[in-house]
Amino acid sequence: MIFKSKLPASPYIIWAAVFTLIPLLLVGYYAFTDSGGNFTIINISDVSKFGPVFIRSVLLGLIATAVCLILAYPFAFIMSRMNAGMQKIMMMLILLPMWMNFILRTYALMTLLEKIDVFVNRFSGFAGLGHIQIINSGGAVVMGMVYNYLPFMILPLYTVMIKIDKSVIEAAQDLGANTMGVVVKIVLPLSKPGILSGITMVFVPSVSTFVISRMLGGGANFLVGDLIEQLVLGTTYNLQLGSAISFILMIFILLSMALLNQFDADETEGMIV
Amino acid sequence: MDSNLIIKLENIEVIYGTVKVLKGINLNIHDKEFITLLGPSGCGKTTTLRIIGGFTEPQTGNVYFDNKKINGVPPHLRQVNTIFQRYALFPHLNVYENVAFGLRLKKAKENEIRTKVFEMLELVNLSGFQPRDVNSLSGGQQQRVAIARALINHPRVLLLDEPLGALDLQLRKEMQVELKKIQQRLNITFVYVTHDQEEALTMSDTIVVMNNGEILQIGAPQDIYNEPANAFVAKFIGDSNIIDGIMHRDYFIEFGGNYFDCIDGGFKPMERVDVVIRPEDIIIEKPSEKNIIGTVETVTFKGVHYEMTVDSFGVKWIVHSTTALNPGEVTGMNVSPDNIHIMKKTGDENESYEIDEISRMINDEEVNINDI
Questions:
Q1: Which chain B residue's Cα is nearest to A186?
Q2: How far is residue B277's CA from residue B341's CA, in Å, rounded to a whole number?
Q3: Which residues are within 8 A (CB) of A206 and not within 5 positions of it... i.e. 6 or more apart?
Q4: Which residues is B320 bridged to in the sheet?
Q5: Chain B: nearest CA to A54, how far in angstroms?
Q6: Domain count, chain A
Q7: Are B107 and A204 in contact (CB under 8 A)?
Q8: Nearest-by-CA chain A residue for B81
Q9: Among A125, B111, B181, B296, which has the minimal tally of Cβ within 10 Å of its Cβ?
Q10: Which residues in chain A have their CB less than 8 angstroms from residue B151's CB?
Q11: Contacts of B105 in chain A (CB under 8 A)
């Protein structure tokens, strides 16, 4: 009977085994072996040389996530309070850019930022502001991340927010909560699952991206993703080191997810007590 | 102004799009009374309640609380609290924190909060429930939490929006008694919204019958029942026979194919009127030229009485009687003069239920981003 109920899931299980589990095991294998196939932790300890790259990746990822949250939160709330027709239109507008390929979108942004860079600097010279770097900067990378991943913040937030009953908000107002009180005591706690999954869905791809940083960051904003790509596919081929960096990145992401989930679980427990 | 007055609505109008949801409501609510807004779904009763609570602003008209105009005062600054239709408990808080919510906003001391929460939970018979998750409670228990939560701020007026609508009949009857007890014990004003006429009759000091965004009648339950202002009120409050009649002169009326003395006057000679006769006021007699003659069609046993439909020249009469007749039997019906209620024809009492439904929907969907 148990076998029967799991049968429909087997295509996915096979898929996941072939394309997720086995590659993961391979990453683990290469991370802990030298080119001769002998066990070593040299690769892992070598990762520490790339500390600044890790820090830059996490920093830019955090900034992009924060910007996404700040942009998406009020938007998702207002959207969730609109009438059904408007909500559909808004949803379309959010999803529309996602119909286009990610790389094409980033190319478009690159071209756009280049033009803006030229345009702004034509005037900043006159205004005595000196050169303002727009394309090929950390800011441009963050912008690329926000541009690409914003929908992944809006959607989970919107999904939890439409479930917040209007009458629950009215009940809070009725009991004496002003706007601030409603946001802090009702909307924030009730939308927390959305905040957490939004953070996950933006932070994880931001930290590991390489296309965005290469197209918009110039040479100076080299991220972990770029590093791995270069080691695995590029000129400085070193599969073992690349695997080790991937391995550490994966551990880091898993740890931060566990931390986030802990945050959620604590609250749920506090609720029942 | 009346010194006993706590809330006064003056010429309130609410329009959503092209639909007038409230058409000039005037209502005085007295301190410590149990007042019920009664009407069919979409008659504007909930909108009226929301205006008192501060959730809907009227386009025209004034709202007074304690002789002070409170138009534009947001809900959190009003001395009223609300029990919402579907309780609207905070799903992320337990029973204790739900009830404590109002006091926490006032930054009350922890031991004061504790004392009051326990006191409130005792009032609604939920002692011992404070650590429970509100989602695990039954409908009746959630209802009680909502009552405790609304009362902890000691409102001068409690607004109740069909609070018993989701409960089963037995529980509803119990809660009716309990709510009435709570109101008397706390000695505060209850403004109660319902579409259930029996509920309104059981609990209220004053009933306000509404339809189509208008108030049709305000009065004590007995007055509303015995002296309905028009055919709609008569029909809405209990079963009624509403028959066309002709007022020949004062205190003398023709209906049902016969002539009767009555106690009403002030109509034009030969004016067409609506005659309202309660089913229990019809006296079954032997057929004669003094009464209304009809044929019994159906007989249903209702516990205390039999409900019969009697066909008299195409008019169906509803008759309640403790003695049963047999279907097919020919009977005479009589009414004593003081049970004949005569009303001017209004002609529009059932106008546009649909528009009401639309306005209800708009009301439900109304979005108040600015409030948040």
A1: B90
A2: 6
A3: A60, A61, A64, A65, A145, A149
A4: B307
A5: 37
A6: 1
A7: no
A8: A174
A9: B111
A10: none
A11: 175-177, 181, 185
Query: What is the pTM assigned to this prediction?
Result: 0.79
Residue A149 to chain B, least CA–CA distance (Å) = 26
DSSP B174-186: HHHHHHHHHHHHH
Contact B372 A169 (CB under 8 A): yes
- Structural domains for chain B: 5-230+354-371 (3.40.50.300), 239-345 (2.40.50.140)
> To which residue do tokens 């306005």 refer?
B359
Q: Which residue of B has its CA nearest to A268?
A: B92
- Contact state of A174 with B76 under an 8 Å Cβ cutoff: yes
Give me the CATH number covering residue A185: 1.10.3720.10
In which residue are the tokens 């409050």 written? B237
Angle between helices B110-123 and B139-151 (to 10 degrees): 130
Closest CA of chain B from A270, distance in Å: 9
Question: How far B301 CA lies from chain A's nearest CA (Å)?
Answer: 43
Query: Out of B53, B86, B91, whose CB is closest to A174?
Result: B53
Among B297, B285, B269, smallest CA distance to B335 is for B285
As a whole number of angstroms, the distance between CA A172 and CA B102 comes to 8
Residues of chain B found within 8 Å of residue A83, distances taken between Cβ atoms? 365, 367
Sheet with B341-344, edge to edge strand ranges: B258-261, B252-255, B241-249, B271-277, B341-344
CA dist A184 and A172 (Å) reads 11
A-B C-beta contacts closer than 8 Å: 90
Contact A170/B86, CB-based, under 8 Å?
A: no
Phi, psi (5° rounding) for residue B29? Answer: -115, 125
A227 and A221 in contact (C-beta within 8 Å)?
Answer: no
Determine the structural domain holding residue A75 and report its residue range: 50-222
ipTM: 0.78
- Does any domain span residue A37? no
Cα of A266 to nearest chain B Cα, Å: 13
A167 domain residue, yes or no: yes
**Tally of residues, chain A:** 273
Buried b (16+ CB within 10 A) or exposed e, B43-71: bbbbbbbbbbbbbbebeebebbbeeeebe
> Contact B92/A271, CB-based, under 8 Å?
yes
Q: Determine, yes or no, domain membership for A129.
A: yes
Q: Which two tokens stand for residue B143?
A: 């209802």
Burial B79-91 (b: 16+ CB within 10 A, else e): ebbbbbbbbbbbb
Would A191 be classed as within a structural domain? yes
Q: Cα angle vertex B40, ends B278, B19, to 5°? A: 135
B153 to chain A: closest CA residue? A175
Rounded-to-integer distance, Cα A204 and Cα B18, Å: 50
pLDDT tens-place values along chain B, 372 residues long = 466 899 999 999 999 888 899 999 999 999 999 999 999 988 999 999 999 999 999 999 999 999 999 999 999 999 999 999 888 999 999 999 999 999 999 999 999 999 999 999 999 999 999 999 999 999 889 999 999 999 999 999 999 999 998 888 888 999 999 999 999 999 999 999 999 998 999 999 999 999 999 999 999 999 998 888 888 898 888 888 888 899 998 899 999 888 999 888 888 888 898 888 999 999 999 988 888 999 999 999 988 899 999 999 888 999 999 988 999 999 999 999 988 988 888 654 443 344 444 444 444 444 444 443
Q: Would you say B292 and B245 are in contact if contact means Cβ atoms under 8 Å apart?
A: no
DSSP bridge pairs for B333:
B284, B292
Nearest residue on chain B to A83, alpha-carbon basis: B365
